[in-house]
Amino acid sequence: MEPAGSVVLGQVLTLAGDHGLGEVAAIAIRDGRVIAAGSRSDVEVLIGRRTRRIELGPDEVALPGLTDSHLHLAEAAIAIDAIQLARAETLEDGLGRIAEAHQTADSRAWLTGHGWARDRWGGWPTAAQLGRVAPGRLVALWAHDHHALWVSPEALMVAGVGMTTADPSGGAIRRTEDGLPTGILHESATVLVTAHIPAPTAAAYEAALPRLGRDLVALGVVAVHDPGLLRPDPRLDGPQRAYGNLADAGRLAVRVHASIRSEALEFVIARGLRSGDGLGADAEGRARLGWLKLFADGSLGSRTAAMLEPFEPDTDSGPAGGPGRDRGMWVTEPKVLERLTARAAAGGIATQIHAIGDAAVRAALDAFRSESTRALRLRARIEHAQLVDPADLPRFGQLGIVASVQPVHLRTDADLARRAWGARAERTSYAWRSLLRSGATLAFGTDAPVEPIDPWPGLALSINRRWAGWPPGTADFGPDQALTLVETLRAACLGPAQAEGAHDRGRLTAGQRADVMVIPAAAITQSIEADGPLATTRPRLVLIDGKVVFEA
Ligand SMILES: [Zn+2]
After folding, report:
1. Distance from residue 526's CA to the centre of ligand 1 (Å)
2. Percent of the chain whose predicted confidence (pLDDT) is above 90
3. Peptide bond into 58 cis (omega under 30)
4. Distance 429 CA to ligand 1 centre (A)
5. How far, in Å, from the CA of 4 to the mean position of ligand 1?
6. Could you count the other beta carbons within 10 Å of the beta carbon of residue 383?
7. What is the pLDDT of residue 322?
């Protein structure tokens, strides 16, 4: 047999089979794939004169690289240069940062940014506040969850949003009791303003992506599912073009499946592009077309999640006229979800549906009832699935649905969920164990830039349902729903590969692509603490297709 290009000698977790870690003592790699996994002697016979030996220390372990199943990669890459409000503890602090950006920016430029939270700031901010710190300026700032937009008086004017503007379908304009827009737009109403902000060009994405790609690889992330942009891109002039170009130039750091929004569906079908197809010149390249991304409902933080039973009463006495007083809202009506999912399937495009509330999850499952919506190269999936009615749990397994969940959301959502959902919260929200037991495929992600790109704190959260930053005495959130270490690693490394229908990724058995990370063994041997070794893991070495892409 021809010698291996490289061998990894030491504790290797292959994730072979349906359960467990599949530990072996060595693997051999040739031409980008694992060619043997087994004992040291199995692999040593494949060592030739030019074979690279990667010898692990006794305190190290190798396993398949991570795939982030829900990372707005293009949006996150561009957002690095925008106003960051995630660390602004108070409204005053946030306004200070905005005033600073206003001083230095070109006078005609839009100020954009993200990261504010009604919850953290003790209420909804207003356009008038922006008018004071950035007079005359066009400003549009996304909430932390990207389901509400805070805009300046000038932005409202440019968008023509006033007293008589009706709420668009699937959206709401927050108003004073007299009906005046306050400066907060919910869900689809955000497009009224974002349509006027010049779109970043493909070149801008191309320039911004490599830096973030390097950061991801250093964290052990080898692949990403990008659920798409906050703005419509009907002819795929933005991220998809940038991913294709970068892949062709050999500059795309990670594998990417890039999803589309419904505005682009007919364009994509007309071009004959199907889910899983290459976006660059190379059909087998790193950039692929992902899913059609649909939104059933809004978010927990904005109380726009679609609910079977009403939310618990809201303590925030904000301006009247906003959504979410009762059972949230539909961003896309169930019958439209069903129609678009079927239309996409007919064109060879798989669908992922954002669903937070239990009514939204039910509607999403209903949209996948028809066999044709599930018989595609990429799997049918539900994003977030934060509150699931117990009656709907078995349907995940029966229909073979991927539950794409982001454990790190618990950090900020645990308290919100307890207040919004009361007793329902700990029983049936973030119910990862129940989902797994029902037969769902779990695929982990971070939802960056809503959360940081570092996937490791989320892995620890999935096991201990606890966060180091919670006030002392806060109970673990729904501890019955905690996952084991093995289930967590499988949901982070293998589940996402299964979601994209890849049979040759996510494990380190013979025939699989050699995407490998070497991490400290302490990450998986020591007890899982909210800020312990697993939560703070940093790989020493990362390979993609058998090539070293990061070395500490
Ligand atoms: Zn998201």
Report:
1. 31
2. 83
3. no
4. 18
5. 40
6. 29
7. 45
Residue 227 confidence (pLDDT): 97
More confident residue, 64 or 172: 64
* Residue 337 structure tokens: 């979800």
**What is the Å distance from ligand 1's center to 498 Cα?**
19
Gap from CA of 446 to ligand 1 centroid (Å): 8
Q: CB of 287 within 8 A of CB of 247?
A: yes
For residue 547, report the distance from its CA to the centre of ligand 1, in Å. Answer: 30
Q: How far is the CA of 7 from the centre of ligand 1 (A)?
A: 38
Dist. CA 186–CA 147, nearest whole Å: 6
CA of 79 to the centre of ligand 1 (A): 14
500 pLDDT above the threshold of 80: yes
Domain 73-194 indexed as CATH 3.90.960.10: no
How far, in Å, from the CA of 449 to the mean position of ligand 1? 8
Helices 456-464 + 410-421 axis angle, to 10: 40
> What does the domain layout of the chain look like in residue ranges?
6-64+509-551, 73-194, 200-292
- CA of residue 48 to ligand 1 center, whole Å: 46
Tell me, in angstroms, the distance from the centre of ligand 1 to residue 447's CA: 5
Which residues lie below 8 Å from residue 501, measured CB to CB, with a gap of 6+?
276, 376, 377, 378, 379
Q: Which of 231-245, 273-287, 304-318 has the lowest mean pLDDT?
A: 304-318
Q: What is the arithmetic mean of pLDDT over 433-444?
A: 96
Query: CB neighbours of 449 closer than 8 A, spacing ≥ 6?
Result: 72, 75, 76, 79, 114
Residue with tokens 């409902």: 297
Q: Looking at domain 6-64+509-551, does it have CATH number 2.30.40.10?
A: yes
Q: Considering all CA atoms of the chain, what is the largest pairwise distance in Å, rounded to the nearest integer?
A: 81
pLDDT digits (tens, 9 = 90+) for 68-99: 999 999 999 988 778 999 989 999 999 999 99
